[in-house]
Write a structure and sequence with these properties.
The protein is an alpha/beta fold. The protein is 44% helix and 25% strand. It has a single domain, classed as Flavodoxin domain (Rossmann fold, 3-Layer(aba) Sandwich), CATH 3.40.50.360. Helix 4 links the parallel strand 5 and strand 6. The radius of gyration is 14 Å and the shape is globular. The protein binds flavin mononucleotide.
Length: 157
């Protein structure tokens, strides 16, 4: 794709730092792909404009009370209605990463359900970390970022 720059947006929330570590690793993986630019934002700072401008999206959340973090939900709440009027968000490739104490499935399934509403296209298996963030999880996150970035850059999604 020559000089075309593919834009990957990573949005996340993190209270005690675990999801943030994952997000940083997803960003690292995505940045390792040529012709890719990465925007890493806390969900609370992310806007509809960020969504419109990206070519691919990674969403990260801790699981709190069997659900995504409230501030990740807040991002969806703030952007959903307007997003539906902007056809360019449909079919945007996305991936998810979750940090949980011991589960993570509640946060994941609710994010996936909302993503269906936006008609995002899931392009890779989610990463769920249970407990401390170890090297294996960091590597999976890096791979997740690298995969969505490489796919976007190659135009395969
Ligand atoms: C208020 C609160 C609720 C939580 N609820 C769950 C839960 O339902 N399931 C679970 O597996 N872990 C739960 N946890 C553990 C967090 O998901 C886990 O500590 C996670 O790594 C936090 O991510 P963070 O460091 O990015 O904030 C909860 C933690 C907090 C603070």
């Amino acid at each position: 794709m020559g000089h075309t720059v593919c834009k990957i947006l990573i949005i996340y929330h993190s209270q005690s730092g675990n999801t943030q570590k994952m997000a940083e690793q997803v960003a690292r993986g995505a940045k390792s792909v040529e012709n890719v630019s990465v925007t890493l934002k806390r969900a609370t700072d992310a806007t509809l404009q960020d969504l419109l401008e990206c070519d691919g999206l990674a969403i990260g959340s801790p699981e709190y009370f069997g659900y995504m973090a409230g501030l990740v939900k807040d991002f969806f709440d703030r952007t959903y209605n307007e997003a539906l009027e902007r056809k360019e968000i449909f079919k945007k490739p996305y991936v998810v990463f979750i940090s949980a104490g011991n589960d993570g499935t509640g946060a994941l399934s609710h994010i996936e359900r909302i993503a269906m509403g936006y008609q995002f296209k899931k392009v890779y298996a989610p990463v769920i970390a249970r407990g401390a963030i170890d090297q294996e999880i960091l590597e999976k996150c890096e791979e997740l970022g690298g995969t969505i970035a490489a796919g976007c850059e190659a135009g395969i999604y």
